[in-house]
Amino acid sequence: EIVLTQSPDFQSVTPKEKVTITCRASQSIGSSLHWYQQKPDQSPKLLIKYASQSISGVPSRFSGSGSGTDFTLTINSLEAEDAAAYYCHQSSSLPLTFGGGTKVEIK
Amino acid sequence: QVQLQESGPGLVKPSQTLSLTCTVSGGSISSGNYYWNWIRQPAGKGLEWIGRIYTSGGTNYNPSLKSRVTISVATSKNQFSLNVSSVTAADTAVYYCARDLGAGAPAYWGQGTLVTVSS
After folding, report:
1. Nearest Cα residue to B59 out of B47, B72, B49, B74
2. Residues B49-67: what's their mean pLDDT?
């Protein structure tokens, strides 16, 4: 099983700041890494697919990078509505797995 | 746009079988090349993939649950279902159904349904 380790677990950020969340895979997964945003009492929402591919309707301040084992989600100029938990997810091999999540709080 | 909606009992007794259905609208469950997934999330915790069924009917399960899980599809009803047998309190979670983009990330999710295992 591929283990995804996210850091940090929690981040308190001022609006307009830049946020960086990392996800490290226990073995190489190529670019089969995806990012989700989950707000309280909502379903996860796909933000980025295949490490860096944008999703229609997702604000351009969200971007992803990386390949192999190390990946990054960047939120440029954080907005209040971005308060949420963020999860990485790999679809390279079964069982599909998710990272433990990063909670982003707005100061 | 495809939409998914979970349904089923919100309370299940220990040792019994948890049964949920996901109803798909906005598209046929039998068209395209997609995986239809079940994912769960215990309160305050992260996401756990349970398993999936392909458009053709093939299934994959998480080994951690494999012996207790069955996913099936009812194409005439545009639904797919989840059964988890011999449940315990550890199976208490919000259960989501989701469809991927095609051999990739689940992109379309239901709203989720809370299932509590308790006597």
Report:
1. B72
2. 92
A3 has a chain B CB within 8 A of its CB: no
Across all residues in chain A, what is the average pLDDT? Answer: 97
Q: Helices (DSSP H) in B1-119: which residue ranges?
A: none
Beta bridge partners of A63: A74
Sign of dihedral through CA atoms B114, A79, A63, B4? Answer: positive
Q: Where are the beta strands (DSSP E) in chain B?
A: 3-7, 11-12, 18-25, 35-41, 48-54, 59-61, 69-74, 79-84, 93-100, 106-109, 113-117
- Would you say B41 and B56 are in contact if contact means Cβ atoms under 8 Å apart? no
Interface test with A, best of B49, B66, B111 (most A CBs within 10 A): B49
Q: How confident is the model at residue B103 (pLDDT cuts 50, 70, 90)?
A: low
Cα separation, B62 vs B76, in Å, equals 27
Q: Which helix (H) or strand (E) holds A103?
A: strand A102-106
Is the CB of residue A89 less than 8 Å away from at least one CB of chain B? yes
Cα–Cα distance, B82 to B90 (Å, whole number): 17
* pLDDT higher than threshold 90 for residue B68: yes
Paired tokens of A78: 């954080």
A70-91 per-position pLDDT tens digit: 999 999 999 999 999 999 999 9
Alpha-carbon distance of B116 to B92, in angstroms, equals 5
Parallel/antiparallel/unpaired status of strands A10-13 and A102-106: parallel
